[in-house]
Task: structure prediction
Amino acid sequence: MLHTINKSPFETSTFASCLGHAAAGDAVLLIEDGVYAAIADTEPGKQIKAKNGTVSFYVLGPDVAARGLTNGSLAEGIQVVDYAGFVDLVAEHEVAQAWL
Amino acid sequence: MEQLVKFSVVVNEGPYTHQASDSAYQFTKAALEKGHEIYRVFFYHDGVNNGTRLTVPPQDERNIQVNWTELAEQHELDLVVCVAAAQRRGVLDKSEADRLGKDADNIAPGFRISGLGQLIDAGIASDRLVTFGD
Result:
């Protein structure tokens, strides 16, 4: 399953809820304000680093750039994709669950 | 050769307040560029506000409604606005305006008004359903 998160983990609990539900082999894609979860050395960033491998983590590059963040500031192991990569992720997983 | 997929997209938020419609548009565009099929885009809740042709954003700003309309024209997309959500928010086509005794309609080119059954149908007929909201 692909999970998409579009809210900052410092604003809502969707990131935490998602990580609680994500099963081994699932993918998590951070979009819109959800990209803030990907910043290295923050609590969510550490969780991404710890859980990476069991769950695959992706972040939408244009939304990272739109918020003045650089790819170098992101948690280790997270993969940056563009919208075409977003489309690929949805195609590759049987279900796409938006955590709104 | 990667497998082609039939997508449907749900947009639950209006333009300019949330990023949902922009994200959905970029996703839809990218999927079409990769050769995938977009079976339907369903505008629900405040998402119906994407379908009024009377919005006039500043000229140097993106026009979200026009973006959708042009994409629909290029790719013969089925852009469906939920009728109950649309009536609450004043999004009407000619026949709805006539039926409800209103003096004008505002549905944008490329959009059509229909029922929630169209979302159920999209869920059944598509390989993937992708939701954008707040």
